[in-house]
Amino acid sequence: MIVALTNSKGGVGKSTLAVHLAVWWKECGANVALVDADVQGSSSVWLKETGSEVPVFRLQTADEVLDQIAEISRSFEHVVVDGPAGLSEVTRAILLVADLALLPCGPSVLDLRAANEAIRVVKQAQTIRHGLPQAMLVPNKLQARYRLSRELLEIARHLAVPATPELRLRQAYADAAGQGTVVWHLGPGGEMAANEIKELFHGLFRKESENHE
Ligand SMILES: Nc1ncnc2c1ncn2[C@@H]1O[C@H](COP(=O)(O)OP(=O)(O)OP(=O)(O)O)[C@@H](O)[C@H]1O
Ligand SMILES: [Mg+2]
């Protein structure tokens, strides 16, 4: 399965989710690789720091994505693709090869606008590919007390793609990146984030993870 993290906005959690998903699958016993399709290269550096031994491929152009992902996915059960910010050729190429696109989205008006743009481009790919990739919004960095967080969840219900359970704004995600690890290896400080993100992955990929349990 090829799972892509894309959105038109930067800083919404694409790399955070990509690294956590790749490590989670690896620890479930899956044969997984990460494709870092962002020239910034942050997820490939972070993933190597985790010591999880997930193979990493860096593909930096739309041609590289279209030429190489099919070949990579033949050698792995799952490929997690970390996309760049923006609706570039690279993002569009990723949407032409992914089975599932996860669109992380923060709780601001700008985030919502960007998510709407991204959904438009996802729909273009779905029209070409007879419904693929499947797409889901991942509400991220939510704060229970803030009105916008509630609004985001309300609007997400009306968008053209379904939403996953939300992830809260938690220092543990930033700490994990700073320490080159994932939230469930942070110790007690990462516990709430760990429960929340593992539950998200389990809900999305229960079938795949059970193959290894
Ligand atoms: N749920 C969260 N709570 C707190 N901080 C978060 C959360 N998710 C991500 N972050 C932080 O937000 C910042 C941006 O996250 P990340 O790099 O994953 O986003 P991105 O979409 O990959 O950005 P870019 O478009 O620049 O590649 C990082 O500092 C990360 O630690
Ligand atoms: Mg990133």
Brief characterization of the structure:
With 213 residues, this protein is of the alpha/beta class. Helices cover 49% and strands 16% of the residues. It has a six-stranded parallel sheet, sandwiched between helices.
Q: In words, what does this structure look like?
A:
The chain is α/β, with parallel strands linked by helices. It has a single domain (2-208), classed as P-loop containing nucleotide triphosphate hydrolases (Rossmann fold), CATH 3.40.50. It contains eight helices and six strands. The chain has helices at residues 14-27, 42-49, 62-75, 89-97, 109-128, 147-158, 171-178, 191-210, and strands spanning 2-7, 32-36, 56-58, 78-85, 100-105, 134-139. A six-stranded parallel beta sheet has the order 3-2-4-1-5-6, sandwiched between helices. Strand 5, helix 5 and strand 6 (134-139) form a beta-alpha-beta unit. Helix 1 runs parallel beside helix 2 (42-49) and helix 3 packs parallel to helix 4. The radius of gyration is 16 Å and the shape is globular. The two termini are 18 Å apart. The relative contact order is 0.17. The mean pLDDT is 93. Bound molecules: adenosine-5'-triphosphate and magnesium ion. Magnesium ion is lined by residues 14-15, 38, 42, 82.
